[in-house]
Amino acid sequence: ELKVEQNPLFLSMQEGKNYTIYCNYSTTSDRLYWYRQDPGKSLESLFVLLSNGAVKQEGRLMASLDTKARLSTLHITAAVHDLSATYFCAVDFLIQGAQKLVFGQGTRLTINP
Amino acid sequence: GAGVSQTPSNKVTEKGKYVELRCDPISGHTALYWYRQSLGQGPEFLIYFQGTGAADDSGLPNDRFFAVRPEGSVSTLKIQRTERGDSAVYLCASSLGGYRGNEQFFGPGTRLTVL
After folding, report:
1. Measured between beta carbons, which residues in chain A are less than 8 angstroms from residue B109?
2. Which stretches of chain A drop beneath a pLDDT of 50?
3. What's the pLDDT at B67?
4. What's the burial of B85, exposed, middle or buried (CB within 10 Å: 0-12/13-18/19+)?
5. Does the pLDDT value for residue B1 go beyond 60?
6. Which residue of A38, A87, A90, B62 has the smallest Cβ count within 10 Å?
């Protein structure tokens, strides 16, 4: 069964702090995406990770992928209020020759001043 | 350039009615996907089109749900005899092709409410 699990599901933190969101998945894959979703809005692509050991950084966010551990992390450095949103990871599985994205449950991040 | 567009943005209907949701993908994208996102959950796959044909419809919950993409561009998701449990945001995404590593770009979604 294809399963993608994120933790934590809810995260409340103060501005200036660092934290990490974890994304574990059940079956081998070397493709993973991180998305941001603001309330009432659609999904905004943050990172595309296409190989084992991939690391990408944009501003205060850094994502990494360890395909052997079936784990991706999204690290937040010196959080600011504008980063408050729900973050989803989505794992790209190859099913019968076609791409299938399976999403985690999402991590609702609230950053307090 | 233009992104994925979806209409309507909101749809309120009564139980038992028929609804159609429309998706207009990014020009040149051959792959089109429909997802359903319930409150507080991640998107769940419904159906995938490569060109005009449904390459994978394994996510459709039952035979009340049907989707078409007759000319390989615009797609319509059709729901018959709607039930309250169908209430969700329906997201459409497109990509250059249904191959792994091709990033999917999402539309703004249609919020369906079944009363």
Report:
1. 42
2. none
3. 97
4. exposed
5. no
6. B62
pLDDT digits (tens, 9 = 90+) for B26-45: 999 999 999 999 998 999 99
**Average pLDDT, stretch B55-72?**
93
B57–A contact, CB cutoff 8 A: no
Residue B53 structure tokens: 């044909």
- Residues B39 and B17: their CA atoms lie apart, in Å, by 22
Partner-chain contact B43 A88, CB within 8 Å: yes
Phi, psi of A82 (to 5 degrees): -60, -15
Interface of A with B (CB under 8 A): 4, 31, 33, 35, 41-43, 45, 48, 50, 88, 90, 92, 94-96, 98-106
pLDDT digits (tens, 9 = 90+) for A11-24: 999 999 999 999 99
What type of residue is A103? F
Q: Does B104 touch chain A (CB under 8 A)?
A: yes
Q: How far is B91 from chain A (nearest CA, A)?
A: 8
Give the pairing of strands A55-58 and A107-112: unpaired
Q: Which helix (H) or strand (E) holds B21?
A: strand B19-24
